[in-house]
Amino acid sequence: MVASTLDGVAIRGLVACVPEGRETQADLAARFGEEAAQKIAKATGIESRHVVAPGQCTSDLADLAARRLLDRLGWQADSVDLLVLVTQTHDHILPGTASLLHRRLGLRKGAAVLDLTHGCSGFVYGLWTAAGMLKAAGRRALLLVGDTTSRLVDPADRAVAPLFGDAAAAVALEQEEGAPAMAFDLGSDGAGAPYLAVSGGGMRSPEEPARLAMDGTQVFAFTLREVPGSVRAALDRAGWAMEEIDHLVLHQANAQMIRHLAQKLGATPGQTVIGLGSYGNTSSASIPLALATELADALSTGRRRLLLSGFGVGWSWGSVALAAGPLAACGVVVLPGRKYPAESAYPASGAGDPAETAGR
Fold first, then answer.
1. Does residue 347 lie in a domain region?
2. Is 204 helix (H, G, I), strand (E, B) or coil?
3. Is 330 a catalytic site residue?
4. Per the confidence metrics, is the pTM higher than 0.90?
5. In this model, does residue 18 exceed pLDDT 60?
6. Which position among 120, 247, 254, 330 bears the catalytic label?
7. Is residue 352 part of a domain?
8. What residue numbers bound the domain in which 214 lies?
9. Fewest beta carbons less than 10 Å away: which of 57, 214, 250, 333?
């Protein structure tokens, strides 16, 4: 376990982005049958998911989220000192997608960028990394997280196809003397790597298709084994009891799993945030997406004590206890469902007029 406390860095706002395209229960019923579709919805709590159009990539979602966030905060792009991107679904093998976003967003020459390859724990790892780097040097940072996991799913695989949606989120961080501390607990166990993996399509097995495979039994067992201890460690480091937090936001993978973990942790239904019904499992974006969809009003109007915990591929897990709000921006923007032309592989910031957003 890695325990860490960072202070002096404040969250100023967050904007999540989902693609316009959606896959619904009717689509699943047509593919797997009505009875199977209903069983999946009952078991997972997922009714529909947003999925990217052909040609859309993680950077398109992250770019729109970041541009909308900068606009709402009134930040100029050249005032950002650091950009950290967390994704498993990079646009290209190289260059890193963070460099593409540096260009698209118009960040100043010399701003630092960093790509992190992490999945469902990625938001907490990204927050730890970005806040730590910002505390060491710089004034403002953008943390971008997101995945287009639907591109890795076999549509005929009923074990994973109904679960994963696409999304990204942008979070603005700024140095602030006296900002409340963030108490982190992080860990990993590489023994779990085979149980949630895309083993094909990489350098090891380039001839194999890049398809996501998951052992659900192993995932569930890992979650119950590691996550409660991590959450409690973050709370202890912050000096909080579970009843003192306002909201528990766990990785939004499965509604039943969230309820089971919350009960195990002693959290009430009123504290526990469940917001995956219309989005599915959006990997590293699931926590900020839940904040933007379920807690936009609360975070826009006052300070809230939050316990955030992500866990999954790796195995990897991370929890953080923090206080956030009031935020100057908190909401969701929709990326229109059109393909970027091949000759514009790196469209400039401002390409396309996004649909209206929810929240602030």
1. no
2. coil
3. no
4. yes
5. yes
6. 120
7. no
8. 2-341
9. 214
Q: Tell whether the model's pLDDT for residue 342 goes beyond 80.
A: no
Catalytic residue of the set 50, 102, 247, 251: 251
- Residue from 50, 247, 254, 281 carrying the catalytic annotation: 281
Strands 182-188 and 316-324: antiparallel
Give the count of domains, the chain: 1
Could you tell me which residues are beta bridge partners of residue 10? 174
Place of tokens 């206080």: 323
| Inside any domain, residue 97 | yes
Residue 12 and residue 73: Cα distance in Å, rounded? Answer: 8
Within the chain, residue ranges assigned H as helices are: 25-32, 34-44, 58-73, 97-105, 122-136, 216-238, 255-265, 286-294, 296-301
Query: Is 255 within a domain?
Result: yes
Per-residue HEC secondary structure of 72-120 comes to: HHCCCHHHCCEEEEECCCCCCCCCCHHHHHHHHHCCCCCCEEEEECCCC
Q: Based on C-alpha coordinates, what's the Rg of the chain?
A: 19
Q: pLDDT by residue (tens digit) across 96-131?
A: 999 999 999 999 999 999 999 999 999 999 999 999
Establish whether 251 is a catalytic residue. Answer: yes
Tell me: the pLDDT tens digits for 281-319? 999 999 999 999 999 999 999 999 999 999 999 999 999
- pLDDT above 90 covers a percentage of the chain that reads 81
* CATH code of the domain in which 214 resides: 3.40.47.10
Q: What is the pLDDT, as a whole number, of residue 294?
A: 98
Q: What angle do CA 287, 291, 295 make, to 5 degrees?
A: 155
